[in-house]
Amino acid sequence: MSPRSARLARLSRSVTFSACHRLHSKSLSDEENLKLFGKCNNPNGHGHNYKGRRLPISRVLPLQIDPVSGMVMNLTDLKEYMQEAIMEPLDHKNLDKDVPYFSEVVSTTENVAVFIWDNLQRLLPQGILYKVEVHETEQNVVVYKGEETIVK
User: Fold this and answer.
1) What is the pTM of this model?
2) Bridging pattern class, strands 8-9 and 63-64
3) Checking CA distances to 76, which of 36, 39, 70, 109 falls within 20 to 30 Å?
């Protein structure tokens, strides 16, 4: 295959951010929240060092490597997008108090992944984002691929 032939690749980048939150639903009583969320419902909250792995970029089909630049996407651009979409709004924040999105949405890792997805979608070229993977702990991981709920 010549150097100018189309080559495909997937690209990903990881970031780590620290944030605190309290798992608490306004739709439930204090007793129901405590029963559902246990110690994570502590009124003073608790913190995590979240790790976003395989954040963008990739899609179902790999992207073509540009024959001139040799890149799928400029990593400097990707780093800036992730800084704006993830680090600025979330790093060293109280999710429930500092991030308006979570004033009405329970700050579970699932909803953190949705928040990151929505923010990245606004910045990245259309159709390029494949999935967002957020590690709350070594054992707890959420993968979100932009799926919507099924309307019944």
Assistant:
1) 0.86
2) antiparallel
3) 109
Kindly give the pairing relationship between strand 15-21 and strand 93-94. parallel
| pLDDT for the residue numbered 10 | 80
For residues 44 and 70, the answer to whether their CB atoms sit within 8 Å is no
136 is catalytic: yes
Catalytic, out of 21, 31, 92, 133:
92
| Side chain identity, residue 10 | R
Question: Tens digit of pLDDT for each residue in 53-100?
Answer: 544 444 444 678 888 998 888 889 989 999 999 999 999 999 999 999
pLDDT tens-digit series, residues 126-143: 878 888 999 998 899 999
Q: Which of the residues 40, 46, 104, 135 is marked catalytic? A: 40
40 is an active site residue: yes
Confirm whether 92 is a catalytic residue.
yes
* Choice among 20, 84, 110, 136 that is catalytic: 136
